[in-house]
Design a protein that fits this description.
Blueprint lengths: L2 E5 L2 E4 L3 E9 L7 E7 L6 E6 L5 E3 L7 E6 L4 E7 L7 E8 L7 E2 L3 E6 L1
Parallel strand pairs: 2-11
Antiparallel strand pairs: 1-3, 3-8, 4-5, 4-9, 5-6, 7-8, 9-10, 9-11
């Protein structure tokens, strides 16, 4: 069983930067695919980006070139650096742990990110 706790959300202005963190406990963090998801009001939850156990990353087109996912296996933590955020990036951001199959059984509680102009 893996417990995930996100932090770092808040209010950020367009053009600024924000970094989210997700600390994991339990399980073997380094073996999991880690993902960041988000859910905006009135919209379905969407996958933002993932990082595999080997460090391979993948991003949804809308954040490519602006967001960076990284992981520190020594600290059992995954990060999401958000550069040049836009109003459309406003959402609750969740981290999740899972496997290459695309199944993510472990989720954090979410952290609100609000981008204002």
């Amino acid at each position: 069983q893996v417990q995930l706790v996100e932090s770092g959300g808040g209010l950020v202005q367009t053009g600024a930067s924000l970094t989210l963190s997700c600390a994991a406990s339990g399980g073997t963090f380094s073996t999991y695919v880690m993902g960041w998801f988000r859910q905006a009001p009135g919209k379905q939850r969407e996958l933002v980006c993932i990082i595999t156990s080997g460090g391979t990353t993948n991003y949804v087109d809308s954040v490519k070139g602006r967001f960076t996912i990284s992981r520190d296996n020594a600290k059992n933590t995954v990060y999401l650096q958000m550069n040049s955020p836009k109003a459309d990036d406003t959402a609750v951001y969740y981290c999740a742990a899972g496997w290459p199959s695309g199944l993510y059984p472990f989720w954090g509680q979410g952290t609100q990110v609000t981008v204002s102009s």
